[in-house]
Structure formats: C-alpha cells, structure tokens
Amino acid sequence: MTTESTSVPSSPGPWPAAGPAFGLASLAPRRGTSGRPAVRRRPAPARRRSGVLPFVAVDGLAVLAAASFLSAAHHDARLLLPVAAVVLVLDGHAGLYRPAAHVRALDELPALASRAGFAWCLAAAGVAAFTPALAIGPLRLCAAYGAHLVVACLVRALILARRRRVARERPRSALVVGGAVAARRFASAAVQHPEYGVRPVGIVGVPEQGGAPRQGGEAGMPVLPVLTTTEEIHRAVIQNSVCDAVFLDDDPALVSLFQQYGCTTWRVGGERRDGPMGEHLWGHAWHRIVPPGERPGLTAKRALDIALAAPALACALPVLLLCALAVRVADGPGVLFRQERVGQHGRHFTLLKFRTLRPSDDNESATRWNVAGDRRMSAAGNFLRKSSLDELPQLWNVLRGDMSLVGPRPERPYFVAQFSKVHTGYAARHRMPVGLTGLAQVHGLRGDTSIEDRCRFDNHYIDHWSLWQDVCILLRTAAGLVRPTGS
Question: To bridge 148 with a disulfide, which of 62, 174, 195, 358 should be the other Cys (CB 3.0-4.6 Å)?
Fold first, then answer.
C-alpha cells in the first residue's frame, strides 16, 4: 500500500474516550456559587471581555478630535472618512482591536503613532496633489496628528484599565494542557496574579505510569485535578464554563477539541511572536492559537478559487468532452466516477473524477489503495491517470466549495481512519479545506509514496499558510504538468 505499515495499534493512545472519573466535583467552583458546580447541557462559547467596538469608536473619536485643529475647509467627509478608513484598516490588521488582557496603552504607543502618522501624511499628500489650494500646512498637520494620538492613547488607557479591573474581578476559567509539574507552575502563577484574568480549574495531562494521576503538587502550588480522558475534559468544560485552554505542549488534536467547544486556545512559549509587552502571563510568553476558520485571508482564498476555477472549467470544456468521449468508447457507460472523501473538519463529500477503472464492487472502491498497473485499465484510462486529466472534474468540486484549489489531498474515510491511528497529526490535516493540489504533491508525494511525509508537508502548509504560497503552489503544479507522473 505505502512505505509505512497501516496496522491498527492495540490502544487508541493517551486520550481514550471514556475512563474512570477523578472527582470533577473537586474542580474549582465559580466565584459567588456553592462548591457544587452547575451542570449545563453543552459548553458555552468563549466570552470575550470586550469587543472591538469600543476601540473602533476610539479611533473615530481621535479622527474627529484631530479635525478640530484643521481649517473649516478640511472638515469635509471626503477627507475625514478616508483617514478614518485607513486608520481602521491599519489598526485592525495590527491586532490593536483585540489587545492582550494585561496590555497597557504605553505598550501600544509605537504602533498607534506610526499608523496614525501614515494615515494623516497620506491624507495631506492627497489633498496637496488633487486640491493644492486646500493643502494642509505642516503646523496644522502636526497639531492634528498630535491631537489624534493624545485622544487615542488617553481613551484607550481608560478602556484597558477597565478591562484589567474586570479581568481581576471576574477571571475566566481555564484548563492547562501539559506536563504535570510545568502545568502546576503555570497554574500557580495565574492564581497568584489574578490581574491576568485566568483562573485554572484543572490540568489536562497524559496518564502517569503506575496508577491514577496525582491531584496534589509541590509546596505552594495549587491542588488541581488531572484530566486524562476526553469524557473528563467534556464534563470539566461544561461544569466550570471553561473559556480558555492554555497549551504548554503542542497537541493539534486537543487544540481542535477545545476550539470545537468554543474555548479560546493559547500557546505558551513556542515560536517567537512580535507584539506588545502585554503578550505574557507573569513572564510566560504566550499567543493565541487562531482557528483555521478565523485566519485572515481565507475569504481571499475562496475568492481565488472561484476566480481561477470558473474560467478554467469553461476553458477546459472541450478537453472534458474529449476525455468523456474517450472513456465512453474505451470503457462503456458511466463516464464519471463518484467517490466519498473526507473534507475540512471531517465533513464527507462526493469527489468527481473521470472513470479510469471499473471496480468490481463498492468495497474495492472504498478500500483499495492504488490501482496503478491494474491490467483491467484501458489505454484511455491509463493515459488519463498519467496525465492527471482524470482529476479535471474536481474543478466542479472547487466551485461547489467542497474543495479548494490548494490544500491537503482528500482521502477516503476508510484510509482516514487507518492513517489517523498510525500517523501522528494526520487528522490535523483537516483543519483547512482539502485541495486539488498541495505542497506535498509539488514535492513529488503522489500515488504510492510515504503517508508520513505527506502528513508532515500538509501540516507545514497549514501552519504557514498564505495566499502567496497558494499562488506559488499553483504555478509549480502548472509547471509540473509538462512532465506528468500520474497518481
């Protein structure tokens, strides 16, 4: 089948679906309630302490304050609205509308100053270029810029101070994921410094050798239960209204699980992230793990799919008709081959291909890994596979939204279940839309090649996704069509 074994291990790993409970009633109760946690039917989505609206309003107020230092001729919406739009776009892109819990206005000063300065200089240049008679003088421009910055910083400082006060008074329940000792140390720092707004209520860890997990810790560390099964995690999230999951170690499966519960996921340490000094919890550097569906640019990715797939399908119509005719003549009725595949978030869809081989039954179609070299394949089918023309109908899957042009290649449910048990991180490939081509394919990982290597390339693509990377992969795929190898 492949270069790796696909035998199923005897146990599903360190996260069984059910197991002995370890007294979830001992989880820290919510403040202002009895020691018995309130049970709800399903997890509540994570609640943000403050939305983006107050910070957007601050930028609008700052632009109006700056306008008061300009002449009456400049109080035109044609000037103020573009300035406000540029400031909103730049500040939003910089993450200034979702600051960290403990960030201060002084930490944000360089980011605010540079973006406001760019917006007003751009406005002044535009006015001077198109209406020289209304050009903004340097003194007025500096005064407007200064007023904008002062108002923005002072009002943001008040909002941030209130957010810190609310965080201290009403901390969010959190589960810490990682080794027992490191998790207790992090939990101890969070408990001793409530100004960060995080209140650990349990530790998610791998079962310890030699018996049940300990619930105590070293001297001075909080006593928290250790959760070892998905059932315990589910109950803890419901009973304690858990809003945050803090990861000390990488675990894509658990990250996906907590994001499905609506929890905000955080990573302590890891790769270096640029940002204000507020991105830490008592010296523990951390950053938010953004769910794939929330990544900026995914709308542009979908727009790119439609913009390229629609004309490609129209231009390829003569080729599609010739391929269909060849299949009909060589192999008889049934030109299209439909097969169930697993897409984003594990959703099943029907993938379309030109039929190159008629399987003996549905079981062979669902469980046979590779049909390359099968003597039942006609010359037409063999040519379609080697040239990859049999994949052309999948452009319709792209237009339907089942797939993207670029992404991990979709696989059949039978093999997804097998590979997920054998290869770490295989299930994490479904964080992004599956694709017609991908990073693994442009590196030659097609057909009967290493599943482990494909998995590694697919997850690397997802972790470092960008729209430009998609364009590069499409160009490399197009270049590779001149020397087809088949799949």
Answer: 62
**Total domains, the chain:** 3
Instruction: Check whether residue 151 and residue 255 sit in a common domain.
Output: no
Q: Is 478 helix (H, G, I), strand (E, B) or coil?
A: helix
pLDDT at position 173: 94
Same-domain check for residues 469 and 353: yes
Nearest to 307 by CA among 462, 467, 477, 93: 467
User: Does residue 147 form part of some domain?
Assistant: yes
Residues 313 and 461 in one domain: yes
**What is the rounded average pLDDT for all residues in the chain?**
79
The CA distance from 266 to 402, in Å, is: 30
In a shared domain, residues 357 and 422:
yes
Parallel, antiparallel, or unpaired: how do β-strands 284-288 and 280-281 relate? antiparallel
Q: Is 219 among the domain residues? A: yes
Do residue 450 and residue 373 come from a single domain?
A: yes
DSSP assignment, residue 245? E
Domain region containing 82: 53-166
Give the mean model confidence (pLDDT) for residues 435-460.
88
Separation between Cα atoms, residue 289 and residue 268, nearest integer Å: 10
Spatial neighbors of 354 by CB under 8 A, at least 6 apart, are 323, 324, 327, 335, 336, 337, 384, 389, 390, 392, 393
Q: How far apart are CA 11 and CA 319, in angstroms?
A: 49
Give 3-state DSSP helix, strand, coil % of the chain, rounded to 5: 50, 10, 40
CA 231 vs. chain centroid, Å, equals 25
Lowest mean pLDDT among 31-45, 172-186, 293-307, 349-363: 31-45
First to last CA, the chain: 13
Burial class (CB in 10 A: 0-12, 13-18, 19+), 275: middle
- 485 falls in which pLDDT band (50, 70, 90)? low
At which of 289, 320, 354 does a domain end?
289
The total number of residues written for the chain in this structure: 487
Cα distances (angstroms) measured from residue 277 to each of 69, 107, 287, 361:
33, 6, 12, 61
Residues 87 and 230 reside in one and the same domain: no
Tens-digit pLDDT profile for residues 4-19: 333 333 333 445 443 3
Task: With a cut of 60, say whether residue 367 has pLDDT above it.
Answer: no
pLDDT digits (tens, 9 = 90+) for 251-275: 888 888 898 888 889 999 765 554 5
Q: Convert the pLDDT of each residue in 312-339 to its tens digit.
A: 999 999 999 998 898 888 877 788 888 8
